[in-house]
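Sharing in case it's useful to others searching the archive later.

Someone asked me privately for the predicted structure of sn-glycerol-3-phosphate-binding periplasmic protein UgpB, so I'm posting the question and my answer publicly. Question first, with the sequence:
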Amino acid sequence: MNVKSILTATTIASLAAGAAHAEKAQVQFWHAMGGTLGEITDKFAADFNATSDTCEINSIYKGNYTENMTAAIAAFRAGQHPHIVQVFEVGTATMMAAGDQGAIYPVYKLMEDAGIDFDPSAYLPAVISYYTDTDNNLLSLPFNSSSPVLWYNKTALDAAGVDVPETWDEVHAAAEALKANGVEKPFSFGWQSWTQIENFSAWHDMPMATEENGFAGLGTEFTFNNEAVVNHIQRIAEMGQDGLFGYGGRRGDSRAQFVNGETALWINSSAYYGGFKQDITDFEFGQAMLPVDTDLADAPQNSIIGGATLWVLQGHEQPEYTCAAEFFQYVSEPEQQAYWHQNTGYVPITTAAYELSREQGFYEENPGTDTAIKQLSLNTPTPASKGVRFGNFVQVRDVINEELEAVWSGDKTAREALDAAVERGNALLRKFENANS
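And my answer, the predicted structure tokens:
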């Protein structure tokens, strides 16, 4: 074949490839996964695209959870919204309300319309129950689900001569020993509403609001200014005064304190595992179950999830929705979920992925990495421990953060701050109820 023929053949092949790409249904997927998590999320999309002749998932990072959700809402109002948007769990009630206005394509309906065999019972009950309606229909696809755990610096604990604490009294005693042995800020945590109010309440089987924590109706009212939570927050404040607790920020800001050894006991998401594996080289670390306040319970109930799900927005073409359904099927497969779980610390969303990780020997080789799963499935969830579903909860968490920060700075007592948080939070609940009744 001469040069002209080769060039002509190459041109034809390139045009054909371009035409094939153009014929693929384009699906926009906005997510909030940065760093390593974002790389794996984008890899899922790329790997799926490589297997499909008809679909192209465009995976786009749009900032943190709040920024991503805000961007999607603004885009929907402008008619320029993505097909799929990742929304953190506190946005569930807001997305459900949007569904009542016809903005959401429920996942159970999406899969049904696409002709995909979809079995909700394949998913872990503690994960899927959070995102179902009153008829147990799945509204959004669980993607990255986690639970807070107690991260610990084993090297520092061993040097101080203390065991991993299992109770809050033991946390206090361990913090004292660590401080005496030179650890600057022995104890800390992140996402304080999630870890110290929402999960603290569920762990001890105490409601943080009426109406089954919002699952039973919009008329819910906060009750987390009860004596148990007030005493818990006041205890932490006093630990701060004694130099045993060091507040480091609202989200994962205090992560650096744990990584650099300033903090040896840190309560936050199990999903920090992947990053810790890469970044912690100077000491041995592990994760354990959340501590129990033995004044409130002899044993824990269960923890509740954090993380996010994938919601589908109405207003696009059906072939694109079929692609979205096929992508959801792909990321739910055991191989993808086991890979996600083992490399991030998020829990596998299906029982099959959990079993695959066990068969692969992951938990034997990495002790403690099933802590979050054990916590979530410790007992059958009660109305107080199923989870929380509150309108305007993104704003409510901001209120809780402000009030707790006033406690840590010494400007308010725990009683003053939690009473104010409940009053301000209830006002936001009523605003949401009035807008969606």
